[in-house]
Amino acid sequence: MNMGGEPGAQRLMESIARFRRADWHKKVLEGYKPSELRVLSMIEKGCLDDARGVTISAISELMRVSPPTVTPLVRSLESNGLIVRSHDEEDRRVVRVRLTEKGVRIRRESREVYIRHFKELYDYLGEARSDQLADLLELVYRFLEEKHKRETEQSEI
């Protein structure tokens, strides 16, 4: 796609598009989908607040997706022995999810692999470029958040 006289914008678009094709974020832990590993992370995070476990709706809120998106992932994790589901003792209609020992181990391994990937990138770029990249990514995030806020405010008018 040519942006008609905007070579800088074209270069940005092409550079960002390369990340999708590289699938770098999908190479976390063999045998598990990135979305499953993310659910494990959200369960771990939710269980820090409540040792009884976390609900599907709480997981979906943490992930910013709908509960129907989370449900098949939870089923898959359960069938692989990474989580257990149980009914809440106070309200039997509520289902809570917790990590099993295997789930804790897989979560720990996936976090180590994820950290190692970024450590390798940091080593490759060096301290100065890593700091510069982090600063630029924070600026991009701020731009996108402000743009979203402006568009949301305009659509409410």
Automatic annotation (TrEMBL):
Tell me yes or no: is Transcription regulation among this UniProt entry's keywords: yes
Question: What SUPFAM superfamilies does the record tag this protein with?
Answer: Winged helix' DNA-binding domain (SSF46785)
> What keywords are assigned to this protein?
DNA-binding, Transcription, Transcription regulation
Q: Where are the transmembrane segments?
A: none
Domain called HTH marR-type: residue spans: 1-145
Q: Name one GO molecular function term.
A: DNA-binding transcription factor activity
Keyword Transcription listed: yes
Q: Which InterPro entries match?
A: HTH_MarR-typ (IPR000835), Iron_dep_repressor (IPR022689), WH-like_DNA-bd_sf (IPR036388), WH_DNA-bd_sf (IPR036390)
Q: What is this protein called?
A: MarR family transcriptional regulator
Native organism: Paenibacillus faecis
